[in-house]
Design goal:
4-stranded mixed β-sheet, rod-shaped, mainly beta, 2% helix
Length: 486
């Protein structure tokens, strides 16, 4: 490599092309395409090296590699490579993400975060970094399935509570935070979380969970042992009569779970009430001191029962009725239910002075103490009236069960001889209010005859019905007499 050469000196010429050219041939004082080539300096020489520009290409990159699935919002990394510039230039890559978006030109490994779910088909291409218009074709596609993160909530045991999600959605983005709050039903307490929230913080409530994958969480609840407190001592009358309906009350019981409660009474006579209200009534069939107590239970879980309350006592006795009778005729009745309805037994107090006893039940009935074997009145009761004829003034007593004034008395069409059940005297129209529209006439007797005609009340002398007396009532049709219960 000199500026001047000697005559016949030999010079070797080597043509070196630039990166995007290739040597083609020699011109001037040389011809041909040998390279290198020798030139003999037997004169001044001029030589031209001719080059042709090479058409640059970039090869198609390999199919992208990376995960085959991912979550909405998750950053996923994909790689490609293998592209070469035929001129040896460095190359760079671009991705088609399969969702209508492309990456910037850059590294062979790039990341993508998707905003919607579905199957995405990813491909890559390359280009020359020097001549950026020289671009390869697209690679084959790589598919990736993109889904939302799902959160499955379970409750154990079933029906013990519920879980509130905030935000409350079906699908969640990757790394989205969800707050979970466990709400126990009335008879349960929250205990801990399980599944994807197991761990040292599993007792926190509320608690946050990060949705970096599909999650399944179980809220565990424990049942509270329900109790019902013992009710108050029953309150009510301290005394009553056999057969009388007596009302007692209790209360004050509570379920620790806030459930409704119901009550039961032990009446102190070997019987118990049904479960129900805190106020209940009972009628005793025998006399004596009865010790009453009560208990309560949950209406929902009827096996949860309180203890018995302390007792309150009620003294139950039979009713004793004493009736003063006049000499001669008496029209009488009584409002106690005697245990034995034998006429000879009930009228034993006055049997020495009894001339005759008469009754009426569709037909006339007679009891003659001198001829009992020929009598057809053998039993007497508290629903009918009776004629008693005595030879002298006399009183007699009856012992029996309380009879409610409102006890129904069946009447036949026509004449009926009935008792008067209330304990107090009462205006006749009020007393017979239940049948007044069917009454033809009412007859009574108190040393003399008494009459009430509803068509002519102003001319009637029977104004008041009183205890101890019986009454004749004539009605237009069969009906039920019910005295007011005052």
């Amino acid at each position: 490599n000199k500026t001047n050469y000697d005559y016949n000196e030999t010079v070797q010429l080597t043509a070196n092309s630039n990166s995007d050219y290739q040597f083609d041939h020699w011109g001037g004082n040389l011809s041909g395409s040998d390279n290198p080539i020798n030139l003999t300096m037997n004169d001044n020489k001029s030589v031209t090296a001719y080059f042709t520009q090479v058409q640059e290409t970039v090869s198609i990159p390999s199919t992208p590699t990376g995960p085959s699935s991912g979550k909405v919002g998750q950053s996923l990394s994909f790689s490609t490579g293998g592209s070469i510039s035929n001129l040896g230039h460095p190359v760079e890559y671009q991705y088609e993400w399969g969702d209508g978006n492309q990456s910037s030109w850059g590294s062979a490994s790039q990341n993508r975060s998707y905003t919607i779910s579905g199957t995405k088909y990813i491909k890559a291409r390359a280009r020359c970094q020097t001549h950026t218009s020289v671009v390869s074709g697209w690679s084959s596609t790589k598919s990736v399935s993109i889904s939302y993160c799902t959160l499955t909530i379970n409750v154990s045991p079933s029906g013990s509570g519920s879980v509130i999600k905030n935000p409350n959605k079906t699908n969640y983005d990757y790394n989205e935070t969800v707050q979970l709050t466990a709400n126990a039903n009335s008879d349960y307490d929250f205990d801990h979380w399980g599944g994807d929230l197991s761990g040292s913080d599993s007792g926190d409530n509320p608690i946050n969970i990060t949705m970096n994958s599909n999650k399944s969480v179980t809220a565990y609840f424990t049942q509270i042992q329900e109790t019902v407190s013992t009710p108050n001592i029953p309150s009510g009358p301290s005394s009553g009569k056999v057969g009388q309906s007596l009302s007692f009350s209790t209360g004050g019981s509570n379920s620790n779970l806030g459930h409704s409660v119901e009550y039961q009474f032990d009446w102190g006579d070997g019987t118990q009430s049904g479960w129900g209200s805190s106020s209940q009534s009972h009628s005793y069939s025998s006399s004596g001191t009865k010790n009453i107590k009560s208990r309560a239970r949950c209406q929902i879980h009827t096996g949860v029962v309180s203890g018995w309350s302390s007792t309150s006592s009620v003294s139950i006795s039979y009713c004793t009725l004493t009736t003063n009778l006049n000499s001669s005729w008496n029209l009488v009745s009584w409002n106690v239910d005697t245990p034995n309805d034998s006429v000879s037994l009930l009228l034993s107090d006055i049997m020495v002075n009894l001339v005759i006893a008469l009754g009426f039940e569709k037909i006339g009935l007679t009891y003659d103490p001198k001829w009992p074997q020929f009598s057809n009145l053998h039993t007497v009761d508290h629903l009918h009236g009776y004629w008693l004829n005595l030879s002298a003034e006399k009183s007699f007593s009856l012992i029996g069960s309380y009879v409610s004034p409102s006890t129904p008395i069946e009447l036949e069409a026509g004449w009926n001889l009935v008792s008067y059940l209330p304990n107090n005297s009462m205006d006749i129209e009020n007393a017979l209010g239940s049948i007044m529209d069917k009454v033809i006439v009412v007859l009574g007797f108190d040393r003399s005859g008494l009459t009430y005609d509803p068509a002519w009340p102003q001319f009637s002398n029977l104004k008041i019905l009183s205890p101890g007396f019986g009454y004749w009532i004539k009605v237009t049709e069969s009906c039920i007499l019910i005295y007011p219960d005052t």
